[in-house]
Amino acid sequence: MNGSRASQGATIRFDRVTFAYTPGGRPAVSDLSLEIRPGESVVIVGPSGSGKSTVLKLLDALVLPQEGHVLVDGIDTRDQERLWDIRRRVGLIFQNPDNQLVSTTVEREIAFGMENLGLQRSEIARRIEEVTERLGLGKLLSRPPHKLSGGEKQRVAVAAVLAMRPACLALDEPTSLLDWQGRREIWSILRAVGDEPSRTVLHVTQFPDEVALGSRALVIAGGELVFDGTPTELFAGAGRAARWGLRSPATMTVAESLRGAGYSVPEGIPSLEDLVDAVARGAEGRAT
Ligand code: ADP
Prior knowledge:
Elements: E1 12-19, E2 29-36, E3 41-45, H1 52-59, E4 67-72, E5 75-76, H2 83-89, E6 90-93, H3 106-116, H4 121-134, H5 150-162, E7 168-172, H6 180-194, E8 200-205, E9 216-221, E10 224-229, H7 231-235, H8 240-243, H9 250-260, H10 272-287
Parallel strand pairs: 3-8, 3-9, 6-7, 7-8
Antiparallel strand pairs: 1-2, 1-4, 4-5, 9-10
Helix pairs in contact: 3-4, 3-5, 5-6, 9-10
This protein binds adenosine-5'-diphosphate.
């Protein structure tokens, strides 16, 4: 298991970053400053078209700021000679797994990125074994990726990236094309990866329910950072999150109803598991 872990998380800094797709046009990201420390698990949420994906593109040097600087472990994304160092540190997962699966079998797919890193065969085999066990891909190794379900494909895409041990895992709406089962599969992986102190996670999502997967929430609206705090703070009180079109996570709404009915549910944004626990414990209490 340890083998799929990064040796240390990345430090990410956006320093007054402005970027417009058309020079002189309306900025997709405007005067954005933030610092993300190694090991933090950050969820970026906000209305569609607000600039969230652009933040990830800036992070991986797919686009470069017209003003300000993006620094990954102190390396400026504008430093073309260090592009490889940045891409090695940041592993990107996109919305559509079909766009990143290129090999004939799952095993080959996981090996592909590591081969590009120039790792030795024995090391590649060791890491394949580790991520396979960790992400429960054992039965899929010899299958062609294009024949898998959406959730399985996305798990393979995540496995292939984790096997390269990026210090930062950056995910752009990784569950938005998945069914409920697929989303839950990716959530459990994100929870586990987010808990690793040695990896920085940046997860862009359009789903408020996914905000609680991280320990820090950023809201981007109109290309600007408008909120930086914990997921619980974001949804505390009426109105704040709604101002940016974010409805409360469903688990929070259900938790409120359960509390109203006398169940004991943890404060904050509970997980589905917490809710099931609360109901089960309540039922036990009634039976005894
Ligand atoms: P989000 O991820 O929050 O939905 P994006 O970062 O994709 O938002 O987009 C921010 C803004 O930049 C939007 O107005 C969008 O239309 C524009 N945009 C995104 N990608 C491109 C592109 N390749 N060319 C031109 N404009 C783009």
